[in-house]
Amino acid sequence: MAQQAPQQAREKCILAYSGGLDTSVAIKWIDENYDLDVVAVCVDVGQERQDLEFVREKALGIGAIESRALDVREEFVGDILSEAIKANSMYENKYPLVSALSRPIIVKKLVELAHQYGATHVAHGCTGKGNDQVRFEVGIRALDPTLTILAPVREWDLRTREQEMEWAIERGIPVPTTKASPYSIDDNLWGRAIECGVLEDPWVEPPSDIYTLTSDARTQTSDEAQYVIIGFHEGVPNALDGEEMSFHDIIIAMNELAGKHGFGRIDMIENRLIGVKSREIYEVPGALALITAHKALEDLCLEREVLHYKLGVEQRWADLVYNGLWYSPLREALAGFIETTQKLVTGEVRLRFFKGSCVPVGRRSTYSLYDYGLATYDEDDSFDHDAADGFIKLHGLPSQVWAAQRRKVGKEGEI
Question: Low-confidence residues of the chain, pLDDT below 50?
Answer without folding.
Answer: none
